[in-house]
Structures are given as C-alpha cells and as structure tokens.
Design goal:
This protein is mainly alpha-helical and about 200 residues long. The protein has two domains: about 90 residues, Serine Threonine Protein Phosphatase 5, Tetratricopeptide repeat (Alpha Horseshoe), CATH 1.25.40; about 100 residues. Helices cover about 70% and strands about 0% of the residues. It has eleven helices and no strands.
Length: about 200
C-alpha cells in the first residue's frame, strides 16, 4: 500500500472546483504539503477518502512528518466509513504500535464517534463496537455487545450477526448478565441521546 493508491481514488472525483481533486492535483505537482492541508480540511469535515489519503501522507511522511499514530487514527476513521484500502493500511500500521498507543487511539476514535452515537447513528455504534473489539489491546466484548445490540435494535442489518459473535466471546456463565447490561445500556443511551429512538418509550 503506497501513495499510488492516493492517485487512484482521484478517478471518481470531478475535476472542476472540487477540493478533493485540487488536493490530488497538488500532490501530483509535487506539492505534498499543500495536498496535506487540503486533505486535512476535508478529513475533518468527514470525507472518508480524504481521511484515507491523509493517513497515507502520515504513513509515508509525504508533506507531513511521518507519524504512524496519526496515520492509524485517520486510517481507522476511513475504514469505519467503508474505504476498503484503509483495512490493509490500518492492519499494517496497527502491528507496529505499542499497546499504550493503541489504547489512546481507541479513546480518541471513541470520542470522535460519540456525538454521532448520541444522534442515534447506528453506523457509529457499529464502528464503536469494532474499535472495542479490534483496536483496543484488550478487546472489550461486553461493551461491544452493548453497542451492537443497540445498533441491531435500531435496524443496522449487519449488527445482529456481529452482536451474536461478540456474545460468543463472553464466558457462558456471564452471558445473561451481559444481555441485561445491554438493556441497561440502551436505557442509559435513551436518557442522553440527542435524537432518541421511538423504542426508548418502551424502556420505562
């Protein structure tokens, strides 16, 4: 996975008055620093492909000092939005970071997802569960199950299978308490959600 991937993503971008295309053009002209500024602006605004490209710049040290921690942060955010090359990039980077760095990154990504979680965004809940299971040095199957249960209840199609897989990681003797915890977590989310679900009225 090298910076060539960055240029491939430009093929779908319109050429005129498009900040993403402008960033790619800057990179092609050898202005990696300018490209980094533009990708950062787009990444902070939520553009998934810009997040991946910013991760590549950090990973390779192009336009920005090389920093695997920052690269992994942006790669994970892109990965959670479905940018397929971000899967391989994040896996490569994740294997080289110490546990304390992964723990701090997990906290940072969780903080980035929580505003969307509060709005009832089931994709953000699903993403948070992935962080808990795949990025934290010690996977937290209990909390992941809670968020997957809520995401499934809100209609996220892929959450149900992931929920059941997370529950399977919990010792059998603890599974009923984990399921009770998910119900309590749903009630707690309903109390603080900025956009609570209709089903929150059933929590009592």
């Amino acid at each position: 996975m090298r910076l060539a991937v960055l240029l491939c993503l430009a093929l779908a971008a319109p050429a005129a008055a498009d900040p993403f295309a402008e960033a790619v053009a800057a990179f092609r002209k050898g202005e990696a620093g300018r490209a980094a500024v533009l990708f950062r602006q787009l990444a902070e605004a939520g553009d998934a492909e810009a997040r991946f490209n910013l991760a590549l710049l950090y990973a390779e040290g192009a336009g920005l000092p090389q920093n695997p921690r920052e690269a992994l942060y942006w790669a994970w955010l892109a990965k959670l939005e479905g940018v397929e090359p971000a899967e391989a990039l994040s896996a490569r980077l994740q294997g080289h970071l110490p546990a304390e760095a992964l723990e701090a990154l997990s906290d940072r990504i969780e903080a980035a997802l929580l505003p969307r979680v509060a709005e009832g965004d089931s994709a953000a809940m699903f993403g948070l569960a992935r962080v808990l299971l795949q990025l934290r040095p010690e996977p937290d199957a209990r909390r992941a199950y809670e968020w997957l249960s809520i995401a499934a209840a809100l209609g996220r199609s892929e959450a149900a299978g992931a929920r059941d897989a997370a529950l399977a990681q919990v010792p059998e003797r603890d599974r009923f308490s984990v399921q009770d915890g998910a119900l309590a977590a749903f009630a707690a989310w309903c109390r603080t959600a900025t956009r609570p679900a209709d089903a929150c009225a059933a929590t009592g």
